[in-house]
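Dear H.,

Thanks for agreeing to be a second pair of eyes. The structure we're designing against is below in token form, covering all 271 positions.
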């Protein structure tokens, strides 16, 4: 029987979330015991560590080749859903993907950990690196970015061929981003723009690049970094050469407004 890949992928994510364990071979032994103790024997089926591990490998392989569905046993998926507190898989899918707010596969495919890259707006030859996580909660996709002094969060939206997000720090700073996505389901990088406010309180906009990172498991493992474009050794360690080249020229990476003092059109011509 065929099922939506997004649904089964989320089913496994929720299983990991429930036990606060990563999705890997050693954890599947724990998941298997928990499911069998809770519902497996009652339903008359067996969900083994081997079954979970093999099914997870199929999920990950299907995501890489942009496959939209996965073949499996409804009884097994029902059991996992029941263990998570739902009536069955249909109930899980109905509550996770309400018809009025069903997540696009394009949006769903952006889930994961990323690093954000910006060029420093002060004119220094620095690239600013910040960790980002895109995740699902309450039937919506969210983006969270950890800056050096603030954490920003907002709902990630797909409109046309672009992703949009208004990132709010909960303080007096906000940060707006737009990335080109098209119909891509396996983006390794998102190239776009941001707009926000400088530390001096002036509007500013510029280029931003997100790079997907699969070498981390949690956002907490990732760190903010400032890397000089002139420091070749450190640059090679933390920044792909293509990103470094993209941010090479300051004038192509930022848009700033003129100095504002009178709040009239005279500000446009004053030096």
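And this is the sequence the design step returned. I haven't edited it by hand at all.
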């Amino acid at each position: 029987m065929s099922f939506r890949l997004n649904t089964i992928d989320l089913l496994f994510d929720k299983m990991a979330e429930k036990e606060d364990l990563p999705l890997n071979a050693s954890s599947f032994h724990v998941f298997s015991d928990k499911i069998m103790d809770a519902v497996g024997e009652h339903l008359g089926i067996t969900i083994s560590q081997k079954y979970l591990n093999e099914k997870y490998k199929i999920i990950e392989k299907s995501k890489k080749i942009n496959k939209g569905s996965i073949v499996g046993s409804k009884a097994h998926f029902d059991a996992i859903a029941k263990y998570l507190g739902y009536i069955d898989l249909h109930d899980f899918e109905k509550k996770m993907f309400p018809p009025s707010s069903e997540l696009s596969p394009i949006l769903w495919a952006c889930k994961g950990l990323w690093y954000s890259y910006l060029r420093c707006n002060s004119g220094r030859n620095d690239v600013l690196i910040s960790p980002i996580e895109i995740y699902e909660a309450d039937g919506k996709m969210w983006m969270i970015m950890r800056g050096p002094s603030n954490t920003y969060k907002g709902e990630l939206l797909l409109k046309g061929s672009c992703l949009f997000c208004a990132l709010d720090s909960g303080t007096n700073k906000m940060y707006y981003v737009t990335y080109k996505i098209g119909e891509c389901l396996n983006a390794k990088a998102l190239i776009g723009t941001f707009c926000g406010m400088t530390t001096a309180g002036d509007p500013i906009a510029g280029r931003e690049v997100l790079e997907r990172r699969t070498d981390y498991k949690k956002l907490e493992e990732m760190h903010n970094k400032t890397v000089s474009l002139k420091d070749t050794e450190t640059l090679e360690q933390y920044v792909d050469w293509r990103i470094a080249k993209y941010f090479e020229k300051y004038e192509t990476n930022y848009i700033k407004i003129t100095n504002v003092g009178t709040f009239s059109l005279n500000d446009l011509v004053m030096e």
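Two observations from my side: Residues 25-43 form the longest helix (19 residues). The first strand starts at residue 2 and ends at 4.

Warmly,
E.
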